[in-house]
Design brief:
homodimer; alpha+beta; L-amino peptidase D-ALA esterase/amidase; seven-stranded mixed beta sheet; 11 helices; 25% strand; globular
């Protein structure tokens, strides 16, 4: 039951010059399911990515890192399979990830190091690389520019809806397009693993800026969401620039043109990231957690994630129960060593609940109750010890989450 | 549905010379419920305690710390109320905690600083100190030495069973008793907060050793359990020594007599702590997480708690689903910066699942399935990079947990 999320209208997803996408059914885990996608990039495109911090990162993540270490300016295709995460698979998993790159590179007449492989699905099972290889001709035959909606569906695992976003902005007299897709509904699904995100733009941006740009966009979007606190072995976010747009090259992100691009990229990335939360496993509510007045952004994040990860806070949201002491408790154990509880403020949307660490005499439970019943809620905690702030997005924790994750893999 | 836990047989709980306990119904939150307990200590007793690390610690925790800072050798009574945590209550909450101490001190003819107050229940509501004061005469009238089972019931909130443990050991030719009680079923219940533990002994132990002893016992027991990762505002563990036993004073924990006492205290504490997990909110399984081969105990704990807190691992245990990649993923994001996944081993009881970071070819899913169906399971992770080890106890994560915590407070 996604929260204020609809499937994207295919017509709203602008093609990105220099990018074609093809999807097929390769029978990787189940028959009759779109499970293999190829994103082909024109020669001269640049690619940068950020990947999971999980030390048990999957084989394809390791291979992506190797291939991007060569510079990111020779990448010609992205290969995504669902149904199998190729994680916890040891040396054999690495060999299979490389085989899939070799197969696609052979079909395209490029080198294996020009392919980035991605896998999402069950952890600790052997990647059926033969089925991937067998499926490649159909995926390649399906390549077309106007195919983002199909690719958004092609990378889904148990997401209930495909996730995509698209913007056009004017830069230096040219229309620049940014279009992206994402997937993920828990950090790890019962069978399926992983958050994946891909955004492509035809902006003509200096390749050397791409890594900073993807990092900044991830920090403002995918790095601010949490469903259940479990960091997947396969999380990846990739930014592609085809440089096809007819404007002068952007050489600085601080230039006026750079700012337009950065802003549009962050908007697209946030929409994709928030879509994952809106489609979170069993989600019935979309929660923005704002922590302000910290000494550092780091301590604001500690408090925001403590709130966003607390099963007790999340079940209270599910129940529409203004049991708001749970939020104070989470702030208290967040790990801010010298936190002074007598400074803390708490607002629930417009309702001021706590001041100086205690319940306000004016606070009425029915006001808290009114806000808790909404589908979208902002929790705002004031630490009142500095000027730093942060925002994290999360969802509630429902019976459906347990049902989804306790289902035996089938 | 507690896991292999029964209510204690009152006859098995040995009285501790120098300690009397009295329980009454004070109507603090609900009528006809035992909710106020007094534990009276003979003059000359010593007390030490460890308290929550939560910076939003409750008013009674702050008062306990103040009173124990005076040395712990003048404490004459412990006062426990359920139904209200007196946390998130600001200056007013502190004043009310002090009022309850004053009232009991007045009735006993001692000073307020000789009382330790404890509260457990809803956070962020005003402590009805008038009801506590009104209930004290009945609690005092009920004081008797042979009353541990009654006190175990008297400190329960939504625990499904009272929790108590008792041992007798021989020290220097004398019989020494250790008896304790505990409560808690989630770190914070929907209405009720807090893990509380009290162990009393008549051992004649140098008062200066008590703080080290209670810290060591907590680290080996209450600090190794987790239900949902939420650290309460009120968690407290208190050790009382009445010094009544007829043996020579223990002046060193490293002496033979000190070792006997320490071992018995750890056993009692572990039984009380494990009882909390066995009665965990919605628990259907008791899980021991052992991490070994770490460089430091600290990194073993990081991995053990990542596993024990992962909602995905816990729902897999609930489902008896050997979806064991989730355990690897949790180890991977535990925060061990230089972890090498190619060294990792995983056992589920006697079943060797993973070696060198990958699934063993010999591993058969039906073997994992067999273990996952048990009510008690040991997860053993080998980091294979050192000699440190740790153990943490937890339970699974069921529909019942969500039901309990999503119930509107009533």
């Amino acid at each position: 039951m996604p929260v204020n999320l609809q499937a994207p209208d295919p017509a709203s997803l602008h093609a990105v010059p220099g990018v074609r996408l093809g999807v097929t059914m390769a029978g990787i885990r189940k028959a009759n399911r779109r499970d293999l996608s190829v994103i082909e990039l024109a020669p001269g495109s640049s690619v940068a990515g950020v990947f999971t911090a999980n030390r048990f990162c999957a084989a394809p993540v390791q291979v992506c890192r190797e291939h991007l270490a060569l510079g990111g300016n020779e990448i010609r295709a992205i290969l995504v399979n669902t149904g199998n995460a190729n994680a916890g698979t040891g040396e054999d998993g690495l060999a299979r990830a490389r085989q899939s790159c070799q197969a696609l590179a052979g079909a395209m007449g490029v080198k294996p190091a020009q392919i980035l492989p991605f896998s999402t699905g069950v952890i600790m099972e052997t990647l059926p690389v033969d089925r991937i290889v067998a499926g490649l001709p159909a995926a390649i035959a399906a390549l077309k520019a106007d195919n983002w909606a199909e690719a958004a569906a092609g990378i889904m695992t148990t997401d209930t809806l495909p996730k995509a976003a698209s913007r056009q902005v004017q830069i230096g007299g040219a229309t620049v397009t940014l279009t992206g897709i994402s997937k993920g509904a828990g950090m790890i699904r019962p069978n399926m693993a992983t958050m994946l995100g891909y955004v492509a733009t035809d902006a003509n941006v200096a390749p050397g800026l791409l890594q900073a740009l993807v990092k900044e966009a991830a920090d403002a979007s995918f790095n601010r969401i949490t469903i259940d606190g479990d960091t997947s072995t396969n999380d990846s976010f990739v930014l592609i620039a085809t440089h096809k747009a007819a404007h002068a090259r952007i050489d600085s992100l601080d230039s006026a043109e750079g700012q337009v691009l950065r802003k549009a990229l962050i908007e697209v990335s946030q929409q994709l990231a928030q879509a994952i939360v809106r489609d979170g496993e069993g989600a019935t509510k979309f929660i923005s957690v704002v922590v302000e007045g910290g000494k550092t952004e780091e301590e604001c994040k500690l408090a925001a994630y403590a709130i966003a990860h607390s099963p007790l806070v999340k079940t209270a949201f599910f129940a529409s129960d203004p049991n708001l002491g749970r939020i104070l408790a989470a702030v208290g154990y967040a790990g801010i060593a010298d936190l002074d509880q007598t400074l803390i403020d708490l607002h629930l949307d417009d309702v001021h609940v706590v001041t100086k660490g205690g319940r306000r005499p004016e606070y009425r439970e029915e006001d808290g109750q009114r806000v808790m019943k909404q589908a979208e809620i902002t929790v705002r905690v004031g630490l009142n010890r500095g000027t730093a702030t942060t925002t994290v997005w999360t969802c509630d924790f429902s019976h459906e989450y347990v049902t989804i994750n306790a289902d035996y893999r089938s």
